[in-house]
Amino acid sequence: MAAAMPLALLVLLLLGRKGWCLAEPPRDSLREELVITPLPSGDVAATFQFRTRWDSELQREGGLSVLLKADRLFHTSYHSQAVHIRPVCRNARCTSISWELRQTLSVVFDAFITGQGKKDWSLFRMFSRTLTEPCPLASESRVYVDITNYNQDNETLEVNPPPTTTYQDVILGTRKIYAIYDLLDTAMINNSRNLNIQLKWKRPPENEAPPVPFLHAQRYVSGYGLQKGELSTLLYNTHPYRAFPVLLLDTVPWYLRLYVHTLTITSKGKENKPSYIHYQPAQDRLQPHLLEMLIQLPANSVTKVSIQFERALLKWTEYTPDPNHGFYVSPSVLSALVPSVVAAKPVDWEESPLFNSLFPVSDGSNYFVRLYTEPLLVNLPTPDFSMPYNVICLTCTVVAVCYGSFYNLLTRTFHIEEPRTGGLAKRLANLIRRARGVPPL
Amino acid sequence: MGLLSDPVRRRALARLVLRLNAPLWALPVAWLERTMRSVGLEVYTQSFSRKLPFPDETHERYMVSGTNVYGILRAPRAASTESLVLTVPCGSDSTNSQAVGLLLALAAHFRGQIYWAKDIIFLVTEHDLLGTEAWLEAYHDVNVTGMQSSPLQGRAGAIQAAVALELSSDVVTSLDVAVEGLNGQLPNLDLLNLFQTFCQKGGLLCTLQGKLQPQDWTSLDGPLQGLQTLLLMVLRQASGRPHGSHGLFLRYRVEALTLRGINSFRQYKYDLVAVGKALEGMFRKLNHLLERLHQSFFLYLLPALSRFVSIGLYMPAAGFLLLVLGLKALELWMQLHEAEVGLEEPGGAPGPSVPLPPSQGVGLASLVAPLLISQAMGLALYVLPVLGQHVATQYFPVAEAEAVVLTLLAIYAAGLALPHNTHRVVSTQAPDRGWMALKLVALIYLALQLGCIALTNFSLGFLLATTMVPAAALAKPHGPRTLYAALLVLTSPAATLLGSLFLWRELQEAPLSLAEGWQLFLAALAQGVLEHHTYGALLFPLLSLGLYPCWLLFWNVLFWK
């Protein structure tokens, strides 16, 4: 299944971890944010971001970092961490530079494991902690909850505690509404000394298939056996009326020898010629195949890109210690400007939340998406690695037994020896031998 | 927390099982989709359809169309590169409904665990093996048997292993395992050892070929029972049928087993929790695999669950049988060579010798006719029954399946009545040379065929070798002709099939009477032709295109005038 971008949003605020506390925090020194987005399948995506622009480090206590408990975070379906460092100008004329550090952690909680099958969630259930106080050094500490679906239909679910302010924006082509919980707002925390954001479904949702994004892709290997196969990529365009182009980049390792004359692209049963193809053939053991194509995906269609290959037999020292596991084929990368149904208005960067900067919108009606398909595992013809040992044993045995016998047969001669009546020495020796009781010479 | 230790889950399973006990004439696709989705799997369906070459009397189907439903449990934090399959083949009756209940309970239990490194596909197929073949072909995007199936939308990477489950009641007294697959392919022995380990751990009673494990190997009873189990396995492997949906997975190099729950008259019964625990253990072990199963044997024979005979021990037996053919061929070659030399001498003394090429050319030319005719009979046996079934039903009051079987038998018997030779062309000086040359060619042809068959499906090769080699070596026109003819008829491929059916039922302690045996034989013929067309089984083409013409050559040799 395609690694469709979770609708998780960004969050931001950075907080430097190691360091010593300053008596008076510099302005704009630390922002921390948590964005919670329920996904259509019932899973919940949570993204932490901590951003600081500083010339010295700060220490953090409290705030959002209390939610980062390792055992709950590793019960998730997906997590990713990132660190971004960049220089920023301190003033408009850029006479001095400070460094901005941004740490991001994105996790997707599995509704079944955390929620025991129900789609309700709460901060305590996800993190086994609630928010008690903001970090005293943070200039901004907020939690954003995606309540786009909720506002339209207040009957189905409720968010607890009810939000005081909301924020609207166009993210990834759809208009979204966020409820804001500001930890620095004294009214928020004073009510109950802890903030446990909860979501309850009033009416249980029907068990239907979750909605699909406009662009998703799937990749698999067709065929069976260890000689040949076919790499197939399925590109789905589920937009009802807009067609858009997609740039497909494939890097296939050299031991899958692609037959480029078998490259076929079909959409809706008819052949689809790509507007641009760049192919760089592989060189054995030096570089992989590189195939890049610009394909126009018709509206509401499935496009199948397939190419046949042959599996190469590697030299026996090139096999890994576990050759029967298989060899990996990297995911193919799809880049596209996916049309959205909402036209955006120009955004003021300083006023808006930090997560906006992660999704630059070039044109109000499109948004850029980069998808990765799943990696593949292919088996190459594997020799029997015990054969060198077997051959050595067998050859040595054969050589030892047969050659030895042949050599004896060919070179052994028999001589008749006349018994010699020896001289004095022999008679003396016989005397001693008779005394010992040993037969004479 | 073990499987079903939660009483809520046990009640849910009991409810599922009761609900599925109602007769199902079609797979409840929508209900299965909803249930699998509520358990937390990604659910997809696949529809397929197929028109069989002639109506299948055993399963009562002709134009088959159905839907497979499968749910994928995605492993958390894994990249969906490998997967395991638990499949339950459902027929048109509800004989496998308990297995569907167990599959759903296992899916619910597995979904809550975090230790899965491979995806697990829970597959419920309709029309048992036809649905499984349709799913496998669509998964690997190939078209081997002419099935029309819709493309799959959900995949989970390369399949590492599969387990097929067949349960007909909710309590079992023993678990039977089937390993023989299509065309005699076998899964890796490690998978059987895995099953055996969990049988012992769970204290389950496990059987092989329906027979219990012999406890006492020192007296005569143990080895005798082992021999019976071994013969049963040889007969099943030789038939080349997929004995369960695991047999179809083996072609795609996916190691697979079928587990059958048997409910017989025993006092101690196990409920589904015990079976589920064994399955859970097997799947957790398969989850730990880093490589595909390849360490143990792929070619073996099983006298018991815990013992096996490796190929190094049993292959020399087939080798010696084929050596008989080789030596006989060598003897004939020497005789032919002497006959040539003898032929030359009378002509060589007075003047220039009679040139050899014409007489040898005549010898070869006389061979071509019997070869072509017997091969043509084999081709007719392969092609005509299915092609001519409609013509036959027009003129005779029989159903299509009966027409196919009767045409098969008719062409087979017609071959017996056609000893064709061109003896008049051969010179009268050496009347023996004709049949000797033909027998030489037939012996080499038979040895080559049996050698190739023994390499791919040892049981079939060995069985045919034990019956055909003595008769083939003995066949000659001189001597007691009726005795040799009877021997040759008794060892023809069709008679071997009939005899092995009787032997198989005898070993299973359910002996057949003659009439029943004949009915079973006719049904086996029809199934053989059908399975060739639906799954690609090779027994029918091998026997009709390969061994029957060869046997006809020996029949020609016997009736050489």
UniProtKB/TrEMBL annotation, chain A:
The chain crosses the membrane at residues 389-410. One of its GO terms (cellular component) is GPI-anchor transamidase complex. Pfam families: Gpi16. The keyword Metal-binding does not apply. It comes from the Eukaryota. Residues 1-23 form the signal peptide. This is Phosphatidylinositol glycan anchor biosynthesis class T. It comes from Macaca nemestrina.
TrEMBL record, chain B:
It is a multi-pass membrane protein. GO terms for biological process: attachment of GPI anchor to protein; GPI anchor biosynthetic process. The keyword Magnesium does not apply. It is found in: Endoplasmic reticulum membrane. The chain crosses the membrane at residues 297-325, 362-384, 396-418, 438-471, 483-504, 538-560. Pathway: Glycolipid biosynthesis; glycosylphosphatidylinositol-anchor biosynthesis. One of its GO terms (cellular component) is GPI-anchor transamidase complex. The keyword Transmembrane helix applies. Keywords: Disulfide bond, Endoplasmic reticulum, Glycoprotein, GPI-anchor biosynthesis, Membrane, Transmembrane, Transmembrane helix. InterPro entries: Gaa1. Heteropentamer. Part of the GPI-anchor transamidase complex, consisting of PIGK, PIGT, PIGS, PIGU and GAA1. Interacts with PIGK. Component of the glycosylphosphatidylinositol-anchor (GPI-anchor) transamidase (GPI-T) complex that catalyzes the formation of the linkage between a proprotein and a GPI-anchor and participates in GPI anchored protein biosynthesis. Binds GPI-anchor. This is GPI-anchor transamidase component GPAA1. It comes from Macaca nemestrina. The gene is GPAA1.
